[in-house]
Amino acid sequence: MTDKTISKTPGLSRRSLLKAGFAAGAVAGTAGAARAAGDPLITEIQDWNRYLGDGVQARPYGVPSEFEAHVVRRDVEWLTASTESSVNFTPLHELDGIITPNGLCFERHHGGIADINPADHRLMINGLVDTPLVFTMEDLKRFPRENRVYFLECAANSGMEWRGSQLNGCQYTHGMVHCVMYTGVPLKLILEEAGLKTNGKWVMPEGADASAMTRSIPIEKALDDCLVAFKMNGEALRPEQGYPLRLVVPGWEGNMWVKWLRRIEVGDEPWHQREETSKYTDLLENGKARRFTWVMDPKSVITSPSPQAPISHGKGPMVISGVAWSGNGRIKRVDVSLDGGRNWKTARLDGPSLSKAMHRFYLDIDWDGSDMLLQSRAMDEHGFFQPTKNELRAARGENSIYHNNGIQTWHVKADGMVENVEVS
């Protein structure tokens, strides 16, 4: 892919040309005017007015309209080795609100989707505990349960953008994330049932799939807000999301949220397993690697307009929409720039504001048809700001593919088309 970079340094012809049309600000207007009277689509009877439709019995499990068939997860063929080890990206540009529908949630698997009969599934607690235990699914459902809305983000989300703009669409640049309501049992209760020994400082969840995914998690996190979940958005976990049981590790990188959870071992030190040595470390410019970089820092992206959601209505009132999230807690503010970061406007946060969940933001503008360099910048409740990509590279170099929460830039052209670019 081509690295498209636009400089903010004045005096260069192409760069100056791009900036010449930028509006310093915009005033939101009234929604677009109604079509002229006489439009046959409103004045004449249509087939759906004339004929009876199918009963719900014909669709016992609800599915989207056939006119929404394009709203699906997608992969990038060259990104992973095979279908048994692949990534499927959430179509962020097609969604609104903060909850991701179950059938559109990002997912990553390393050994294919395990097909498990819940009646045969077991969860073992062993290691530094007073009493090693094995639970059935029915056993687990007898514990007190909680409902919590959290985002899940892969540490490699936006990873292909470290060296420059690569993938032309927010589904591909930022779609390794989803946000749902999980129902499950606090991990703390399950560990307490087995009885933690005083030297138990870490836990290691293990998946039941062929890849046997494992990660080391400090006991403080395990006893804080982790859930052993069996439902998402009210229904059973989808098979690709770990049915019948998965771990939820709020605010921390997604590969720690072990799917098809079968065992949790308690130990006195981290295990340094395959997925926390060969992968999911941050390779710095000097060749050293940062390990145990669990928290997903503040991040945001404008989902519309974006390369997969260009402006189709022409000039006039429009809504800039996007999502923001932080593993540190709630999003406090999101700013939006129309001119590549020179000027910023505070966006409107809408919908629930929940800790370690997605937040929806909007900026209503009146577009005059000029080029725009759209950016968003999130700040969480603890004052952590989303950095520019150059600030990240100055701190870490360009070797890593993990934890890229840099500000994303979309170049909106006069014809409404949108392209992934960078400003410097």
TrEMBL record:
Keywords: Metal-binding, Molybdenum, Oxidoreductase
Alphabetized SUPFAM superfamilies for the sequence: E set domains, Oxidoreductase molybdopterin-binding domain
Top-level division of the source organism's lineage: Bacteria
Biological-process GO terms, alphabetical: sulfur compound metabolic process
Cofactor needs: Mo-molybdopterin
Domain Moybdenum cofactor oxidoreductase dimerisation span(s) in chain numbering: 292-408
Domain Oxidoreductase molybdopterin-binding: 110-271
Gene Ontology molecular function: heme binding; molybdenum ion binding; molybdopterin cofactor binding; sulfite oxidase activity
InterPro entries, per the entry: Ig_E-set, MoCF_OxRdtse_dimer, Mopterin_OxRdtase_euk, OxRdtase_Mopterin-bd_dom, OxRdtase_Mopterin-bd_sf, Sulfite_DH_SoxC, TAT_signal
PROSITE patterns noted in UniProt: TAT
Protein name (Swiss-Prot/TrEMBL): Probable sulfite oxidase molybdopterin subunit
Source organism of this protein record: Roseibium aggregatum (strain ATCC 25650 / DSM 13394 / JCM 20685 / NBRC 16684 / NCIMB 2208 / IAM 12614 / B1) (Stappia aggregata)
